[in-house]
Amino acid sequence: MRRLITPTLLCASLLVLLSCQKKTTTPSPAPSKPVSERASNSDPAGAADEAALREAAIKGDIGAVKVLLDEGVNVNAKDADGRTALTEAAFYGRTEIAKILLDKGADVFAKKNDGATLLTIASSHKEIAEMIQQEIQLLEAAGKGDNAMVKELLDKGAYVNVRDPEGRTPLTEAAWNNHVETVKLLLDKGANPNAKKVDGATPLSIATNKQHKEIVELLKKAGGK
Predict the structure, then answer these.
(1) Is residue 24 part of a domain?
(2) Is 22 within a domain?
(3) By residue range, what is the domain housing residue 54?
(4) Residue 192 pLDDT > 70, yes or no?
(5) Model confidence at 8: pLDDT above 60
(6) What is the pLDDT of residues 95-108, one digit of tens each?
(7) Whole-prediction pTM value?
């Protein structure tokens, strides 16, 4: 009799255990917030300052823009829609603020989430569109060694350390293409000899790898590393 009862009890126990396991499920993860609710800065105070910079650009409040930038607010901070202070200044035609932002290194290649570029956003504000175009042209002119154009663009106020999405600057392009006189001109105008591309390359590492000895010496004298 004992031999019959024991297997029966074991089978019953197994059925109970299997039933419990089926009822136990892993909790589903909490749903992520919609993109529109995500902040570009995890620090509430920092995010508030970035939002204030964009708002000041919209309103044309030059004083507030200067104060916020002097306090170290990120000039290229984006909101959930990809808007920056410069996209807003361009859209609303705030020319003086656009100049200030560009002088602080605002990204002329920035795109909103809908794909709108600064040139398209500023299309109805000729002076701002020209300023943005000048910086894009400066990268191209430096890469070609067109010193007359480089000088003209810089004299018009183009930002000497403008960067494209890959981190290339006029100086990295001149160094890559062995344009010695262009490198001299850019350094004289305040080009950063240690600006890094996204891949970590510096003007000096580029010139060294390309064996452009004269440019290597120029960059070293300028503090390049």
Answers:
(1) no
(2) no
(3) 43-124
(4) yes
(5) no
(6) 999 999 998 889 99
(7) 0.71
Q: Do 98 and 148 sit in the same domain of this protein?
A: no
Domain boundary among 124, 141, 157: 124
Averaged pLDDT score across all residues of the chain: 84
> Per residue, what are the HEC states of the chain?
CHHHHHHHHHHHHHHHHHHHHHHCCCCCCCCCCCHHHCCCCCCHHHHHHHHHHHHHHHHCCHHHHHHHHHCCCCCCCCCCCCCCHHHHHHHHCCHHHHHHHHHCCCCCCCECCCCCEHHHHCCCCHHHHHHHHHHHHHHHHHHHCCHHHHHHHHHCCCCCCCCCCCCCCHHHHHHHCCCHHHHHHHHHCCCCCCCCCCCCCCHHHHHHHCCCHHHHHHHHHCCCC
Instruction: Report the CATH number that the domain containing residue 63 is assigned in CATH.
Output: 1.25.40.20
pLDDT tens digits along 51-107? 999 999 999 999 999 999 999 999 999 999 999 999 999 999 999 999 999 988 899
Spatial CA neighbour of 169 closest among 94, 219, 127: 219
